[in-house]
């Protein structure tokens, strides 16, 4: 107990000076002059508004990725005391005084800087030599594209950081596993793997591929463990269970957590509300919630409502009608019923109001007590402004010829009787006697005579319909589709004829408070679903590129240009490094196949442990490159060069491994080794030289004359902004 | 994967155990089956090994058995026991000796006497009879009421029509490769159909036109699915009950039945898929006799069937993938077999390249050659193809045409986009509606030939009529500044800084001016791609770009379809992004200029590889173009295995003759359960084996069937199902049917094996046998009964819809989404 009396307390510190110096160098390269330029650079114009939204707590929806990355950027703003007041309207706009540029750019820069020592660590944990580890770190350190990207408010450096962290902590865990499983360090690294994976996925959807890669490697290792018969069944079960918790459950929980924080932070309504469902909107402060607060929950006969289409594509809209009628003859010569138009209108309007009428009563007001409408009830919908009845009949709709026309019935005294009875079908009912609730219920209106369903067809009507959206009766109820579902958004009771024009709500105990009604999971699922299915308008961009351009560095992106001095920042990689990294990957694949074929013929070129290391290194580094690159070939969205950087980072780890392998196993004689090391030194000096030449375009710190720019215009496909004299 | 590595290890274990050092001599090369009977070769070693099944030492035992079962089907059957007897006496006696302790005990337990020749022959006859019965049942169900309904059903309207096109030899365009439609056309031709029926829309009565030939052909191919599946399962599991169960599932499935009864591509496609699978399995079973005649026969047949599958629909790629994976795994094992010299392995490789790559490619090209030779008349598909392609088709205005070679001022031309299926630059007397840029005349691209595609090339600065004979001919040269006047409306091609209607980042292109008088926004610089200044511009050959002088943008088509107001033609824009894509490159197709001499176009005819390439580009484009609309209900891949919703083949109302494509729910849901059950049992077995559990020989044999045979089929199911989740095009329920075939085979194998495993745990073998037989019988009878219930779906029904409680089908509407 009093051991310290007998023995002195000794602190032994082991400091890897290589690591330290690498870290310092990378911090310098990433943080130097960080707040320059004090202007919006390229994609900062995209992420900036989200930071402002976080500062103002305003809800937004961004389909480009999950919210963790955005939140981290916003954290920088929060720490720097940003008030969110900046108009992010164009690239190159000068930042005002209140924008803490340094703080905003700090987190991505730190992440970028820390990737360098992490690269070192990964290579050493792969049990390759110290020399190879330094090589990997140095490559990461001088790669111009990585520097540029991490010095700005962009997410790629964060993604690379988390990717590396996931791989590194898995390797640490794997190495600890060999001698002391279930130790504290073992748990730490295992959990950290899960956390890093969750963060990578939370920053960018692309992170999921690195996650899957780590998961695959872990599964294979676990499979070997299952086959290890020196372990008891219980112990194997513990191993598998621990991995499942740390690598599957934990990331899932953290991913949810990140959305939870996101939704908790953003509680005010904002410009993107309209995309969300009514219930979601009502859960935000302001906006719809202000209108719907205190409105009665249950829809009763006589209620006045607006009906919103649940699907809301191509536009969120409300059921609408107006005085105008369908043209007697359409442009293509077909006839219509010439009754009053019914459309879906994307703006709030007095013509969006409908009264739910009981077919058996003649009054348009709510009785006292109110008689709620239930699932299966037959109702009539009366248009508030024109008091005409919603009707459909066996006349082809104006644009969707296979569907029925929906109109507000006008009696022309010809043999076309009113068919205005609709059966209410509550889609998300709990029981068959459920009442129709404002906002919460999604309902379908099934026409009684023809069993057609009221549906938004998604087509825009021509001029005569004011280009509002077409509403039709779909004859065959071909499955459930959200375009057939509607929900009540605004809702009033009116008690009697005398009080017309004056809003008086009945005293009813069932007042709605929707923000409490919608659970986090419901909100999360809706938000995630909308983020994944939101079809952003196909944006053709001047500087977009295809995955094939990336490997050969055929394109660059001009990020920023100083209008006065021609100083400019480009996302531009180091040609030497890119070319050699691609070559190294190809070499790895060829060597691997060669060894594999030889092993299949029972010729073992490499000792077993070297082979194992070689495979693991390839699986993690080469695999990391593949999973971060190849999926882009299947994507249809607009792609930019910076999408390649996570893949490149892994490629840079693989490069020194291949070099070391060549040195160790392919160079047989001392002479070969001498020549090889000389080549490597030359190559690295060349890389440094190129990196230095491109430095003005990386930092943008030096005014450049047209001559200098022309000298940097090495490839025709590069966009270097040269001003005409 | 696991079993594969097991097999791989087995090869090595054998060589390391039994091969003499350096043993690559003839002794080891051939008679692998003799050598690999450990019992015969080295009984003491064999005995010492039995029973020791721990992972490290004695896995050779297990692996030997795996190998053994694979190499010696006869012995495999002997071990699996039950109904199947050994076929060849030579193998039989040897097997009896070599079965080892366990096997011998089992063999005696099951058949006290060694199998006699007569009983074997009897069983052989019985097996043939069973196969015949299954085939007969299949044909009977498929051909029953084949002529009903006597009107066009569902997609018959397409494929029947395309069959007619072949008979009439008119060129058309379809997104699928031609083989299926060619066969339909051939069947129609042979059965006396004259190609005059129009196949306009579903529900049209055939009346006097002969349609039974085409339907009969499809039903004939569709009927073969059942015996094929039967044989595949028999070969994979060596178990008659499993094969019978599979056959019953397919015979009694209303979905397969319906799909086989009409003029569709699916029965043809599935026929080839199953044929490929069957020949692959057969050829695998001859792995112990490489380069023998049956081996070659089945290998070649695999290649031919693969061509067939791919030639009918691109979905055939999935079975190619499966055969490819199988072949790679196979070659990998051969490569790892050190008893084979590299030359032998090379021979194996060459044989596969020849039969599975070269032969199918040649056949595939032959199909296209026939397709192109047969269709030599101009028809509805012309506009989808390039100008040079069209010159082949008789009746097309480019066929045997002769036109002036070089463009000159005053020429009347049509301008075609180089990207497939964009069409001709077009304008018409309609304005862009309000809200879509300036209200000027629309300019679009249009796929069909039309007078509105004609444009006149004029000099930008003079309005004099260049056709006036007093002026000399002046050729248009690369880099000239020109004006394009629309011939019908006399408006100039024009662009300006307004957003294009759909692609908001591009500029709008309009027709502007009155009688050819406009403004400086009508000026375009004409450039030939990769040419120097001053060159003339050639018809058809020159790839030109039109660059707007004022804004510097390039004339292109975005390929997006305009809404109703633009007649669903394609949008034309002027793009400020100068990257060279095919969308902004054009060529001149028609060219009229009376002042110039004409040259013949025949020199421009494309070569066969060009035609092939172009057809495929157009097909791929067409497939990608089949995108579902947002607001329509579409079939999703997850609907399919649960039989969520069918397809109406004919009729919708209660007075109609209704046919509804829906799988027999009993069978489909059984399949679904089986897949889950298979995955569970497979993981349990895999983990048990990885943990080094000791399995008895019999269980070992059953698990081998489950892992290998079941694995093959499961792979087939996955390959034919999961890719649909990635497809952007519009999907239909019937896309699932190839996967469903595999799923049914899996069900057959799984239940037979599971019942055997379960029954194997029972005490007495006679009880076990009867439990197994009862189980299989219950499943077969159950499916037969469900077929009796659901058969009106396939054979047609009239009367009230199933929603109506009075309908006889009312009780069978188990899901609300079914509409029959």
Automatic annotation (TrEMBL), chain A:
Its main location: endoplasmic reticulum. Keywords: Endoplasmic reticulum, Glycosyltransferase, Membrane, Repeat, Transferase, Transmembrane, Transmembrane helix. GO terms for biological process: extracellular matrix organization. It catalyses: a di-trans,poly-cis-dolichyl beta-D-mannosyl phosphate + L-threonyl-[protein] = 3-O-(alpha-D-mannosyl)-L-threonyl-[protein] + a di-trans,poly-cis-dolichyl phosphate + H(+); a di-trans,poly-cis-dolichyl beta-D-mannosyl phosphate + L-seryl-[protein] = 3-O-(alpha-D-mannosyl)-L-seryl-[protein] + a di-trans,poly-cis-dolichyl phosphate + H(+). Pathway: Protein modification; protein glycosylation. One of its GO terms (cellular component) is acrosomal vesicle. Gene3D superfamilies: 2.80.10.50. Residues 296-359, 370-427, 431-491 form the MIR domain. The chain crosses the membrane at residues 68-88, 100-120, 126-146, 158-174, 186-203, 208-226, 246-267, 571-594, 614-634, 641-663, 675-694. It is a multi-pass membrane protein. CDD domains: beta-trefoil_MIR_POMT1 (cd23281). InterPro entries: ArnT-like_N (IPR003342), MIR_dom_sf (IPR036300), MIR_motif (IPR016093), PMT-like (IPR027005), PMT_4TMC (IPR032421). Transfers mannosyl residues to the hydroxyl group of serine or threonine residues. Coexpression of both POMT1 and POMT2 is necessary for enzyme activity, expression of either POMT1 or POMT2 alone is insufficient. Essentially dedicated to O-mannosylation of alpha-DAG1 and few other proteins but not of cadherins and protocaherins. This is Dolichyl-phosphate-mannose--protein mannosyltransferase. The lineage of its organism: Eukaryota, Metazoa, Chordata, Craniata, Vertebrata. The gene is POMT1.
TrEMBL record, chain B:
The keyword ATP-binding does not apply. The keyword Transmembrane helix applies. It is a multi-pass membrane protein. Residues 92-122 are annotated as: Disordered. GO terms for molecular function: dolichyl-phosphate-mannose-protein mannosyltransferase activity. It is found in: Endoplasmic reticulum membrane. GO terms for biological process: basement membrane organization; dentate gyrus development; reactive gliosis. Pathway: Protein modification; protein glycosylation. One of its GO terms (cellular component) is endoplasmic reticulum membrane. Its EC number is 2.4.1.109. The chain crosses the membrane at residues 239-257, 264-283, 295-328, 349-374, 666-685, 705-724, 736-759, 771-790. Keywords: Endoplasmic reticulum, Glycosyltransferase, Membrane, Repeat, Transferase, Transmembrane, Transmembrane helix. Pfam families: MIR (PF02815), PMT (PF02366), PMT_4TMC (PF16192). Residues 404-460, 473-529, 534-591 form the MIR domain. It catalyses: a di-trans,poly-cis-dolichyl beta-D-mannosyl phosphate + L-seryl-[protein] = 3-O-(alpha-D-mannosyl)-L-seryl-[protein] + a di-trans,poly-cis-dolichyl phosphate + H(+); a di-trans,poly-cis-dolichyl beta-D-mannosyl phosphate + L-threonyl-[protein] = 3-O-(alpha-D-mannosyl)-L-threonyl-[protein] + a di-trans,poly-cis-dolichyl phosphate + H(+). InterPro entries: ArnT-like_N, MIR_dom_sf, MIR_motif, PMT-like, PMT_4TMC. Belongs to the glycosyltransferase 39 family. Transfers mannosyl residues to the hydroxyl group of serine or threonine residues. Coexpression of both POMT1 and POMT2 is necessary for enzyme activity, expression of either POMT1 or POMT2 alone is insufficient. Essentially dedicated to O-mannosylation of alpha-DAG1 and few other proteins but not of cadherins and protocaherins. Transfers mannose from Dol-P-mannose to Ser or Thr residues on proteins. This is Dolichyl-phosphate-mannose--protein mannosyltransferase.
């Amino acid at each position: 107990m009093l051991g310290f009396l007998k023995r002195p307390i000794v602190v032994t510190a082991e400091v890897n000076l290589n690591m330290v110096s690498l870290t310092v160098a990378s911090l310098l390269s990433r943080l130097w002059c960080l707040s320059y330029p004090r202007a919006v650079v390229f994609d900062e114009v995209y992420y900036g508004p989200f930071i402002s939204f976080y500062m103002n707590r305003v809800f937004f929806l961004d389909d480009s990725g999950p919210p963790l990355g955005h939140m981290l950027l916003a954290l920088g703003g929060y720490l720097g005391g940003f008030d969110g007041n900046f108009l992010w309207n164009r690239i190159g706009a000068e930042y005002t005084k209140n924008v803490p540029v340094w703080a905003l750019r700090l987190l991505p820069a730190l992440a970028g800087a820390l990737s360098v020592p992490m690269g070192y660590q990964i290579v050493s944990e792969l049990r390759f030599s110290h020399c190879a580890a330094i090589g990997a770190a140095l490559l990461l350190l001088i790669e111009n594209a990585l520097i540029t990207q991490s010095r700005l408010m962009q997410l790629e450096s964060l993604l690379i950081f988390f990717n590396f962290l996931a791989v590194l902590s898995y390797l640490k865990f794997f190495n600890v596993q060999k001698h002391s499983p279930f130790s504290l360090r073992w748990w730490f690294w295992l959990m950290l793997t899960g956390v890093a994976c969750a963060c990578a996925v939370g920053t960018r959807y692309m992170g999921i591929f690195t996650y899957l890669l780590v998961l695959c490697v872990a599964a294979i290792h676990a499979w070997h463990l299952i086959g290890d018969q020196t372990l008891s069944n219980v112990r194997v079960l513990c191993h598998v269970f621990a991995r499942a918790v740390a690598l599957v459950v934990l990331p899932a929980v953290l991913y949810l957590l990140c959305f939870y924080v996101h939704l908790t932070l953003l509680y005010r309504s904002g410009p993107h509300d309209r995309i969300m469902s009514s219930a979601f909107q009502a859960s935000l402060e302001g906006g719809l919630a202000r209108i719907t607060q205190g409105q009665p929950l249950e829809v009763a006969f006589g209620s006045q409502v607006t009906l919103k289409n649940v699907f809301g594509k191509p536009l969120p809209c409300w059921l609408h009608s107006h005085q105008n009628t369908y043209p007697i003859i359409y442009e293509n010569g077909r006839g219509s019923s010439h009754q009053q138009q019914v459309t879906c209108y994307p703006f709030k309007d007095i013509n969006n109001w409908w009264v739910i009428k009981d077919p058996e009563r003649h009054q348009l007001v709510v009785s006292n007590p109110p008689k709620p409408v239930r699932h299966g009830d037959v109702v009539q919908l009366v248009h508030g402004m024109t008091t005409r009845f919603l009707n459909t009949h066996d006349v082809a709709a104006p644009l969707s010829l296979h569907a029925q026309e929906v109109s507000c019935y006008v009696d022309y005294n010809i043999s076309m009787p009113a068919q205005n009875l609709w059966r209410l079908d509550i889609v998300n009912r709990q029981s068959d006697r459920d009442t129709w609730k404002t906002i919460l219920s999604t309902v379908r209106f099934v026409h009684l005579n023809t069993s057609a369903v009221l549906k938004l067809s998604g087509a825009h009507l021509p001029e005569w319909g004011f280009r509002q959206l077409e509403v039709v009766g779909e004859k065959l109820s071909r499955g459930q589709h959200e375009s057939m579902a509607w929900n009540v958004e605004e809702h009033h009771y009116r008690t009697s004829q005398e009080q017309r024009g004056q809003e008086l709500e009945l005293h009813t105990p069932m007042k709605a408070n929707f923000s409490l009604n919608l659970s986090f999971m419901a909100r999360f699922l809706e938000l995630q679903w909308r983020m994944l299915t939101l079809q952003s308008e196909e944006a053709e961009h001047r500087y977009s590129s295809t995955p094939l351009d990336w490997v050969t560095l055929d394109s660059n992106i001009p990020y920023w240009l100083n209008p006065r001095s021609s100083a400019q920042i480009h996302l531009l990689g180091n040609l030497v490094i890119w070319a050699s990294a691609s070559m190294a990957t190809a070499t790895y694949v060829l060597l691997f196949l060669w060894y594999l074929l030889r092993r299949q013929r029972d010729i073992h070129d490499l000792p077993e442990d070297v082979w194992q290391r070689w495979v693991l290194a390839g699986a993690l580094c080469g695999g990391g490159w593949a999973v971060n690159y190849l999926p882009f070939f299947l994507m249809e969205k607009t792609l930019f060069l910076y999408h390649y950087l996570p893949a490149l980072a892994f490629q840079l780890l693989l490069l020194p491994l291949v070099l070391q392998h060549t040195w160790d196993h392919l160079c047989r004689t001392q002479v070969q080794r001498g020549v090889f090391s000389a080549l490597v030194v030359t190559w690295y000096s060349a890389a440094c030289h190129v990196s230095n030449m491109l430095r003005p375009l990386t930092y943008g710190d030096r005014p450049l004359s047209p001559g200098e720019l022309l000298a940097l215009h090495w490839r025709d496909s590069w966009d270097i902004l040269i001003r005409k004299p | 994967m696991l079993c594969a590595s097991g097999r791989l290890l087995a090869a090595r274990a054998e060589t390391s155990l039994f091969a003499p050092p350096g043993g690559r001599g003839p002794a080891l090369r051939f008679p692998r089956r003799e050598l690999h009977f450990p019992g015969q070769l080295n009984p003491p070693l064999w005995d010492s090994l039995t029973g020791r099944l721990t992972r490290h030492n004695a896995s050779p035992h297990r692996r030997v058995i795996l190998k053994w079962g694979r190499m010696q089907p006869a012995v495999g059957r002997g071990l699996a026991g039950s109904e199947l007897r050994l076929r060849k006496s030579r193998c039989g006696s040897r097997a009896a000796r070599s079965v080892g302790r366990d096997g011998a005990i089992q063999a005696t337990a099951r058949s006290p006497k060694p199998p006699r020749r007569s009983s074997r022959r009897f069983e052989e006859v019985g097996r043939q009879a069973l196969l015949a019965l299954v085939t007969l049942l299949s044909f009977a169900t498929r051909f029953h009421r084949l002529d009903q309904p006597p009107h066009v059903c569902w997609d018959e309207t397409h494929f029947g029509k395309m069959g007619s096109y072949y008979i009439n030899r008119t060129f058309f365009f379809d997104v699928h490769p031609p083989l299926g439609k060619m066969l339909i056309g051939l069947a129609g031709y042979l059965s006396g159909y004259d190609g005059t029926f129009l196949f306009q829309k579903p529900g049209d009565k055939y009346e006097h036109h002969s349609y039974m030939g085409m339907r009969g052909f499809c039903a004939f191919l569709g009927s073969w699915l059942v015996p094929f599946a039967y044989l595949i399962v028999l070969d994979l599991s060596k178990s008659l009950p499993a094969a019978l169960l599979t056959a019953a599932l397919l015979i009694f499935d209303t979905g397969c039945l319906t799909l086989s009864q009409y003029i569709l591509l699916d029965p043809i496609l599935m026929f080839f898929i199953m044929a490929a699978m069957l020949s692959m399995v057969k050829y695998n079973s001859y792995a112990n006799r490489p380069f023998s005649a049956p081996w070659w026969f089945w290998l070649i047949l695999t290649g031919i069937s693969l061509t067939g599958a791919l030639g009918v629909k691109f979905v055939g790629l999935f079975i190619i993938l499966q055969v490819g994976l199988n072949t790679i795994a196979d070659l990998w094992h051969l490569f790892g077999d050190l008893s084979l010299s590299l030359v032998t392995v090379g021979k194996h490789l060459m044989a596969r390249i020849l039969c599975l790559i070269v032969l199918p490619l040649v056949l595939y090209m032959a199909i296209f050659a026939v397709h192109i030779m047969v269709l030599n008349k101009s028809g509805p598909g012309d506009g989808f193809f390039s100008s040079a392609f069209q010159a082949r088709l008789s009746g097309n205005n480019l066929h045997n045409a002769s036109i002036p070679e070089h463009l000159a001022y005053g020429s009347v031309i049509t301008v075609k986009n180089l990207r497939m299926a964009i069409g001709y630059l077009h304008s018409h007397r309609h304005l862009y509606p309000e809200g879509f840029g300036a209200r000027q005349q629309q300019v679009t691209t249009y796929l069909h030939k039309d007078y509105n595609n004609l444009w006149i090339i004029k000099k930008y600065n003079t309005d004099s009529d260049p056709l006036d004979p007093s002026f000399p001919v002046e050729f248009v040269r690369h880099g000239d500044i020109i004006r394009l006047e629309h011939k019908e409306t006399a408006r100039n091609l024009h662009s300006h800084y307004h957003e294009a209607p759909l692609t908001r980042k591009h500029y709008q292109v309009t027709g502007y001016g009155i009688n050819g008088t406009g403004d400086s926004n009508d000026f375009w610089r004409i450039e030939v791609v990769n040419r120097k200044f001053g060159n003339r511009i050639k018809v058809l050959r020159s790839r030109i770009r039109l660059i707007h002088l004022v804004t510097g943008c390039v004339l292109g088509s975005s390929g997006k379809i305009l809404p109703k107001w633009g007649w669903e033609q394609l949008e034309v824009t002027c793009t400020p992004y100068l990257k060279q894509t095919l969308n902004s490159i054009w060529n001149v197709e028609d060219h009229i200029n009376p002042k110039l001499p004409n040259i013949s176009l025949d020199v421009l005819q494309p070569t066969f590889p060009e035609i092939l390439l172009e057809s495929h580009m157009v097909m791929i484009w067409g497939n990608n173009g089949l995108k579902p609309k947002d607001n329509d209900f579409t079939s999703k891949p997850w609907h399919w295995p649960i039989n969520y919703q069918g397809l109406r083949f004919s009729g919708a109302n209660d007075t109609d003759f209704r046919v509804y494509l829906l799988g027999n729910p009993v069978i489909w849901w059984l399949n679904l359960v089986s897949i889950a059950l298979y995955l569970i049992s497979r993981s349990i077995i895999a983990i048990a084996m990885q943990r080094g559990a000791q399995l008895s020989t019999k269980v070992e044999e059953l698990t081998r069937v489950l892992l290998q045979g079941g694995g093959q089929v499961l792979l087939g199911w996955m390959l034919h199902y999961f890719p649909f989740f990635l497809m952007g095009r519009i999907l239909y329920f019937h896309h699932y049917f190839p996967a469903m075939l595999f799923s049914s085979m899996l069900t057959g194998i799984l239940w037979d094996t599971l019942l055997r495993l379960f029954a194997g745990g029972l005490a007495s073998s006679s009880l076990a046998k009867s439990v197994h037989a009862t189980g299989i019988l219950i499943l077969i009878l159950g499916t037969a009964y469900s077929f009796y219930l659901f058969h009106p779906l396939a054979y047609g029904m009239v009367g009230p819809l199933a929603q109506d409680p009075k309908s006889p089908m009312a009780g069978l509407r188990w899901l609300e989404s079914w509409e029959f």
